[in-house]
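$ ./design --mode recover --in tokens.txt
reading tokens...
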């Protein structure tokens, strides 16, 4: 991992303002995914790229869809709902990838294609109830705090087995796998440990009862660390700035613990 403190986010993540530029940005990310997969002896086809569109205005998202982005990830339900309404004429799947409060379960149950941040049974119960009313199902990833940072969302690794064992009680939720955010560090070894731990937790769950983790997917890796995540087994990487450019809004708006932009 390069020393990201040596350059500003704007220098590291230039902003594209047209279809061609966005298409080239996506292609560069896919090329880096492919190279990382090759280093790990994996096929690039095993890795799904989820563009993260938070703070990106609707007009640029329309260009991104023209450039080939057919699914977008948002942290905040309210922002996702607004953009979904504005882009209702386009064929886009919306993923909610940020912490979810129970009072937002109705919105997510109504239109989201997936939730990548399930970490409480109260949320599972609220979603299941709302999904039943809407006659829908929802793909979910269970979020695990692999960095042991108190400020991060996600359950401690030790709580994962009991949580997974409880989820079959909510039949409208389709568990696809696990999700994590790595430690915020310029040390690749520390980042890699977080991703390796999530893979180990997935493997242990499979050994106990493979049905509990569904397809056993691993959503991990963002703009600053997705190549390490792919090397450690990621099946989904959540990439925003490397596609859309540096954000003007600081990450503290989305993660109070964050000190610099990273997704």
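writing sequence...
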């Amino acid at each position: 991992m390069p020393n990201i403190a040596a350059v500003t986010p704007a220098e590291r993540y230039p902003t594209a303002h047209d279809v061609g530029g966005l298409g080239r940005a996506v292609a560069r990310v896919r090329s880096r995914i492919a190279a990382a997969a090759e280093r790990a002896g994996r096929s690039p086809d095993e890795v799904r790229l989820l563009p993260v569109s938070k703070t990106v205005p609707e007009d640029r998202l329309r260009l991104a869809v023209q450039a080939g982005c057919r699914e977008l990830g948002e942290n905040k339900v309210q922002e996702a709902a607004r953009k979904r309404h504005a882009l209702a004429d386009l064929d886009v799947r919306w993923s909610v990838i940020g912490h979810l409060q129970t009072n937002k379960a109705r919105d997510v149950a109504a239109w989201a294609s997936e939730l990548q941040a399930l970490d409480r049974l109260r949320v599972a119960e609220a979603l299941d109830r709302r999904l039943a009313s809407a006659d829908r199902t929802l793909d979910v990833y269970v979020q695990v705090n692999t960095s042991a940072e108190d400020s991060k969302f996600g359950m401690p690794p030790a709580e994962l087995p009991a949580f997974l064992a409880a989820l079959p009680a909510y039949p409208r939720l389709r568990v696809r796998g696990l999700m994590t955010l790595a430690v915020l560090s310029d040390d690749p070894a520390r980042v890699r440990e977080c991703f390796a731990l999530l893979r180990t937790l997935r493997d242990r769950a499979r050994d106990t009862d493979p049905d509990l983790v569904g397809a056993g997917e691993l959503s991990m890796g963002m703009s600053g660390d997705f190549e390490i995540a792919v090397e450690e087994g990621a099946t989904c990487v959540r990439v925003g700035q490397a596609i859309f450019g540096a954000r003007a809004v600081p990450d503290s708006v989305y993660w109070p613990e964050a000190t610099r932009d990273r997704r």
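exit 0
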